[in-house]
Amino acid sequence: MNSLTPFPGRGAPPDEVVAFQRNELNVILSLYGRMVAAGEWRDYGISSLREVAVFSVFRRTAETPLYRIEKRPKLRGRQGQYAVFGMDGQALKRGSDLRTVLRVLERKLIRAVE
């Protein structure tokens, strides 16, 4: 059951789009809230495309993303469907468990608070 509605005349039909589920967004937004409170992050964007869903994190709205959290279900059996990419496009962590993959960013939170 997919409740996504694309913008009129844009993108793929909802059943062909990869999106973050509510429980996945809860995990991501929990980390996002802690990073905002620490003054590290200020904005985010979410994209749902045919093969990938992307949660992009920004320090400022007009910049390129600091990090991209991607969900690619087709990679579930290989590298894992979740990945975190840095600003330079390098994969920082890949895996099949979202919480485990996001730990690479939580380490940065610990350093920011010290």
TrEMBL record:
Name this polypeptide is given: DUF2794 domain-containing protein
InterPro entries tied to this protein: DUF2794
Domain of life: Bacteria
